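Task card 7
Instruction: Convert sequence to structure tokens.
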Amino acid sequence: MIFRILIYFFMILALHGCGERLVVFPTSPGVPLQDVCDRYHVTWQWDGVTQVVMMEYRGNISKALVGSSTVLIGRHAIILSAPLRRDHSTIYVPEDFEAKVLAPFGVPIAGIGQVGSFSRVHVIVIDAGHGGKDRGTMDSSREMDEKEIVLDVAKRLRPLLEGAGIRVIMTRDTDDFIPLPERTVIAARSGGDLFISIHVNSNQDHAVSGLLVYYLDTISRGELNEEQRRENERVFLRSLSAYDSQTMQAIVADMMDTLKTAQSQKLAKSIIREARSEPGVKVRGNGIRVCRFFVVRNTLIPAVLVETGFLSNAHEHNKLISPSYRQKMAEIIARGVLDYANE
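Output:
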């Protein structure tokens, strides 16, 4: 069995362009693996002959190969943004190594603990805005449009939350166009406890900058009767044994509306609190805004929309196209969620 797994592992590496020769780089891009493993108490060893790196954490084994961007965790292959590299005796890993490898590997990342057994949060819907034909806020430099930035943040956020013991449902995890109504239906069907939509801002005034979190503070009678919201209520209530009771439907819907507004605000404040504590991250004003965005008002569960920064601002533009800053955004949201979940 072990032999077959090793064969499978090296086949994956070969498919991703790993050559047989020793790969030595004159520069040292990325993060030293030794530093990462020391920080999270992961033991590791490198075989100088086969170039295989093996890592162990609490009995879990992970393997990678210098020169390849593939990491094998059990039977699952994780693809990093860049290959592992060696400069003399030091192994370097790309910036997304922690989120993609260590979090699902079982390592608590960036101060993010575990969700408590009595937590209010067990399932989260992550909504990466735009996608496909909808590019969102377009980057004048043509480096990364909004749809690419937010999908990357969402994919970094997912393993952080899963590593904390939360099940994650993505409205999209590829560059596909998902209509707004469908996103809210996904949330209604999910059995989720929270809905987090991720976006990038823009403003004609290029001096405007800063992270913002939006939530719905009140809902009007017209919005309560909005066709999409009614459909989402029907989808949700089908899972309840009292679905045929109109009285019970009305009680449940009212309770959910009350819960949503109060808890959405708490979640927004928690994320902003984490953002303010993170060096190099600017929060605009008090960081919290009320909104009537479609996906926020038509989801039944507590929901927030996180604007990670202004692509129209030159300084934040340079941050948002940086993998390390997008990782920082994912960690801020994850810590905010865990703070909220464990209150």
